[in-house]
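Task: sequence design from structure.
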């Protein structure tokens, strides 16, 4: 793994290594073990989109590992027309890794093409790999396994939906997506998922016997002008108490946040499943710590070998399974 740009770029074994290592890092923090696995390493963070969880989880995560993060926003020359190839080449001389949160996925791909250090996709309009790694970690915490688990996504076929489909397919899960006609996931992602994916316009059909019910905002960043029109189009795609009757009795509810209570999810459901959603948000930091270590650490082989053999690697899976 040289970069992390899309979930579909990863093998199942690579995802499992990330999840197990993230479990170990989470366990270490819980019991007060702090290893400076990224001591003196620096992550440059390019933000073209606003953020709460992405910025704080990456910044706090690398700090806990002994490294540093640089917040690069509107004031960098990239936002004044500097070619991304030049930005990539120069940043590669300064930092040990680059995270980018932007609109066009091609920008992240081009940054990786011209960078000599690892590039991590913190979000693009096509994909959100770090979010889905956190989602997989959370599902495994609550259901002990991923293989054979059914997850449904209710709402817009957006970047989160695209990456969730790819991640589920790789990990041997079944995924059903309910969305209005014309708002389906990316065609390439649909082809990638094959028989693992079902697409319907019926939320009840998608949620039937699902172990995980997932939703996201109806209008993502950059789609604000469509917000009112989308409210009308998606009004029947709310995750609420009635919809959950179709899911498995022990289903968990996930939301990548921020949530618009009363739109894509009812306040009642969000409050009832708030602990699951908060675990999901926390896991962003742990999986990103694992990714940063695997991409940026100079000597991680011994740590990964220890993790694979250590019972703590599945600690959170066991206590919530």
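Answer:
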């Amino acid at each position: 793994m040289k970069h992390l740009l899309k979930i579909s770029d990863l093998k199942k074994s690579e995802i499992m290594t990330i999840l197990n290592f993230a479990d170990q890092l989470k366990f270490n923090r819980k019991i007060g073990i702090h290893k400076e696995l990224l001591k003196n390493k620096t992550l440059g963070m390019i933000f073209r989109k606003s953020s709460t969880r992405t910025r704080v989880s990456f910044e706090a995560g690398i700090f806990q590992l002994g490294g540093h993060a640089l917040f690069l926003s509107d004031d960098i020359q990239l936002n004044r027309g500097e070619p991304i190839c030049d930005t990539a080449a120069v940043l590669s001389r300064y930092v040990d890794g680059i995270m980018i949160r932007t609109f066009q996925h091609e920008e992240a791909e081009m940054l990786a093409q011209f960078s000599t250090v690892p590039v991590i996709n913190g979000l693009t309009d096509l994909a959100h790999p770090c979010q889905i790694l956190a989602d997989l970690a959370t599902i495994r915490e609550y259901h002990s396994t991923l293989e054979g688990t059914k997850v449904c996504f209710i709402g817009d076929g957006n970047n989160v939906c695209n990456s969730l489909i790819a991640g589920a397919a790789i990990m041997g899960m079944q995924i059903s997506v309910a969305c209005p006609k014309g708002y389906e996931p990316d065609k390439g992602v649909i082809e990638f998922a094959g028989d693992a994916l079902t697409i319907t316009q019926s939320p009840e059909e998608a949620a039937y016997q699902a172990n995980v019910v997932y939703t996201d905002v109806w209008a993502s960043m950059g789609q604000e002008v469509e917000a009112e029109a989308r409210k009308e189009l998606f009004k029947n795609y709310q995750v609420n108490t009635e919809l959950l009757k179709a899911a498995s009795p022990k289903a968990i509810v996930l939301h990548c946040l921020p949530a618009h209570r009363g739109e894509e999810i009812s306040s009642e459901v969000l409050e009832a499943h708030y602990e699951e959603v908060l675990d999901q948000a926390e896991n962003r930091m742990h999986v990103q710590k694992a990714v940063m270590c695997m991409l940026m650490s100079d000597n991680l082989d011994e740590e990964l070998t220890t993790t694979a053999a250590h019972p703590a690697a599945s600690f959170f899976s066991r206590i919530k399974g």
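The mean pLDDT is 93.
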